[in-house]
């Protein structure tokens, strides 16, 4: 059973603080190993990739087989059953439509002194997407990363996905094809990140690297940050469900379990104003754990990090939600929009009983790459913005320079930056002379 | 004299590649020292801040003097001459007006199956701004960091600024007041970043930390990233000027020097299609170096990292500009807008002869915190977006769930995430039963 807390309990504050500060993730120190792998790829290029792939993925490839050929992709895609293909295509269309609305607009205007000011957005030229191998090789994550990049206008999008023991996941390749990925490489681990950031004979370097991965991949992303841009380093997944008694305990139990089954370090929390409902949900969770295929993972997550918190009011629930700053937040209450308006910090909010988080994971349209570990206090989920950058523009007329130049000069002198001041002064003198 | 390169020279590609890859910054390895400082602040709070401030800034403060009082700020602000106050206020008003236009809009819509989708933006609750001490203690940087935060709606904005030997910069305090900063602390170095991220008895923790600093500050920001959000880690400043012969060499020389005077590691590059104009600019630079107060710094930067590149066409200039991806880009050509449209990568573009970069540093309106070291390929200058985060919203109706649920179930099963599928199935069964 998970922890049961109640805000009316005198020990609540301490127990809640403990829940928030629980360390859920082991971070093995792999930095030295990763540094060595990156150095090897930079020094030896394809040869290093071939050696490292043989060592870690037990596949021996010649350099010309690092990249999947069109025929290979075609062959793998043909293995996908029609129903799965149709589901992927429906998801891709909805994700594309949602992200197309995120495209920001360029702006240019003339202000009251005649200065022209503005900004414009341009895509990064090339991006790389890391896709894990094995059990965590999710075609849905390919769509969620690749589609925003393509909507943003990224010209070249490369995917790396390891093929342990030579096994490729047809659904991942099909997702790449549907999303418009340009190149797919049989590469995983820190060596894949190094290849994307620095390039080799076969892998052209990119400007931005995104995508989930294990501790080696995360450490490699941290190391190449600066040389290329990276997305967030995601931690274990989380869900917070706020539900009143007018809900089916089964709905809530399965929503909690759909986070818990991801990972033993995942966290599922229910906040409710009805203790009996909280108990009913907990019983439903236990019941489903008897049959769920991933019961071992989900059960560990639920017992170690799960919680049922009973509040005295939905005001308290909103305040706790902001302190938890959950990756996923479901609001199963009479007026979910009103409650949402009172909560500031969450990666994604799912409103009402017909919006299980799993819809958002696959097919709703919004991105499923979301801030974890309370980082929703200051960061956002993946979007087209991750593949765009803004350039500011300004143009002064002689009149605008006359209006602003003297003040710029005063500030430059105050900061003892004489050349800054002179670059303005020489122009003012020209205009006045 | 700086390097002279020409694209028609057979050795150009190698020389240009060398120019791009030159290591301009010493990065002393201060990480162990910074880790110890952060641990000390976390363990001992204010007492650690007092000790570390005595050691590094040679000021002994009681904990109740870590924060500037209103009366102290008042007294310091009163020392600022009227002309400087008026210039700061003009700058603040323009920066505020520019950044107010950046505020993104919330969106909600119903799609063709009746699902309600959208997102909304909310500010981070509290932000901290690091302001360096000594020579690099720039009031303009206070405005450029603090105003976007306040425009975004940050409720509590704390500034830390060291006061070496007890000396405070009145202009910095006035800039804090004009920008609406809520709290100012006499703190610098890694200890200031630790206090902002983790909090002490006197310093409440924040959610986001921005602002420039030395190697210790940069290392501390990297270490607290994840616990709080950070802005970029900025490197030495850069300018690229693309100018044709119809320009005053003096304008261009002073614009180049206004970067070079920042730092011996700064980089100033001129690209021109007229070798004689390039020579004239180089001569003008040398002439100004005879009288410039910061000639030692500017001269070292210009000799070690400066360059004049002669191109055969403005097409070549545009291509080089994208490879350089400069922090600041001035276009002094007949049709600067047309040339700007052919360049993708730059932090800020200054159009035409009356827009010296110094105007952008102080008073134009756009932010002067910009991506350095070629990171304009994938990142943007500071903006209101750095103090906002986006929450996605979705609400399914029963009809929308009927339309999407079966495909979500198929994808969940394909990824072997049974609880995900069941959370959808249980609802579909309810709707159909």
TrEMBL record, chains A, B:
It comes from the Bacteria. Pfam families: Histidinol_dh. Keywords: Amino-acid biosynthesis, Histidine biosynthesis, Metal-binding, NAD, Oxidoreductase, Zinc. It catalyses: L-histidinol + 2 NAD(+) + H2O = L-histidine + 2 NADH + 3 H(+). NAD(+) binds at residues 130, 191, 214. Its EC number is 1.1.1.23. Binds 1 zinc ion per subunit. The active site is at residues 327-328. GO terms for molecular function: histidinol dehydrogenase activity. Pathway: Amino-acid biosynthesis; L-histidine biosynthesis; L-histidine from 5-phospho-alpha-D-ribose 1-diphosphate: step 9/9. Its cofactor is Zn(2+). The keyword Metal-binding applies. Substrate binds at residues 237, 259, 262, 328, 361, 415, 420. PROSITE patterns: HISOL_DEHYDROGENASE (PS00611). Zn(2+) binds at residues 259, 262, 361, 420. The keyword tRNA-binding does not apply. Catalyzes the sequential NAD-dependent oxidations of L-histidinol to L-histidinaldehyde and then to L-histidine. PANTHER family: HISTIDINE BIOSYNTHESIS TRIFUNCTIONAL PROTEIN (PTHR21256:SF2), HISTIDINOL DEHYDROGENASE HDH (PTHR21256). Belongs to the histidinol dehydrogenase family. This is Histidinol dehydrogenase. It comes from Rubellimicrobium aerolatum. The gene is hisD.
